[in-house]
UniProtKB/TrEMBL annotation:
It comes from the Bacteria. Pathway: Cofactor biosynthesis; thiamine diphosphate biosynthesis; thiamine phosphate from 4-amino-2-methyl-5-diphosphomethylpyrimidine and 4-methyl-5-(2-phosphoethyl)-thiazole: step 1/1. The gene is thiE. GO terms for cellular component: cytoplasm. It comes from Sporolactobacillus nakayamae. Condenses 4-methyl-5-(beta-hydroxyethyl)thiazole monophosphate (THZ-P) and 2-methyl-4-amino-5-hydroxymethyl pyrimidine pyrophosphate (HMP-PP) to form thiamine monophosphate (TMP). This is Thiamine-phosphate synthase.
Length: 218
């Protein structure tokens, strides 16, 4: 596992997308465009009414994993621990309604990164105790990417945790735009996680570049 400094860089521009998060391009084409443009990590999140199942689901995940390896970008799997292990993913991310984080850590061992969604100080502290390497904090603003999203938090929780010297890197997610990046990073986050702002952009490469241009840390 890399150092905390390296993980913070990995989390700088965290692209999240499944086959259902389509825009003008085929999702794997969108992913490759984003990889070429400079995303620092990718999470495959296959959820929703239009998501893939069975062999098509596995094939998409395997292809996405291969693309990430080709561009030397860490590959995370949302929720599906068995598939993450089968694909030798770099990390797993779980939400509060998914499998319990400490049980996930037991399954994946110490070498794979574990991310946990947190919407409160209590959830953030529990993630730390359960063995998380980073937390996803959100939603930052209202988002259409998750039907069951919590109420928007803005940068309040990130600032609160930073003031408490919370030790894990934090990533803001949910309705984040390039203009939000400076505020989010100054609040104490390591980076931002983005879904539709890249996946459904008319020009995904330009969208990535706009996010990257907002922080010297990227």
């Amino acid at each position: 596992m890399t150092s905390d400094k390296d993980l913070k860089h990995v989390l700088s521009l965290y692209f999240v997308m499944g086959s259902q998060d389509v825009g003008l391009y085929d999702p794997l084409t969108t992913l490759e465009i984003a990889l070429k443009a400079g995303i620092t990590c990718y999470q495959w999140r296959e959820k929703g009414a239009e998501s893939l199942t069975g062999s098509e689901r596995f094939a998409f995940a395997k292809a996405a994993r291969h693309l990430c390896q080709t561009y030397h970008v860490p590959f995370f799997v949302d929720d599906d621990v068995s598939l993450a292990l089968e694909l030798n993913a770099d990390g797993v991310h779980v939400g509060q309604k998914d499998e319990i984080a400490r049980e996930v850590r037991q399954k994946i061992g110490p070498a794979m990164w574990l991310g946990v969604s947190a919407h409160s100080v209590e959830e953030a502290n529990r993630a730390l105790v359960d063995g998380a390497d980073y937390i996803g904090v959100g939603p930052y603003k209202p988002t259409q990417s998750k039907a069951d999203a919590e109420s928007p938090l803005g940068d309040t929780l990130i600032r609160t945790l930073a003031e408490m010297n919370y030790p894990l890197p934090m990533v803001a997610i949910g309705g984040v735009t390039p203009a939000d990046v400076p505020t989010i990073c100054s609040a104490g986050a390591a980076g931002v996680a983005v879904i539709s702002a890249i996946s459904k952009a008319a020009d995904p490469a330009m969208a990535v570049e706009r996010f990257l241009s907002q922080s010297n840390d990227f």
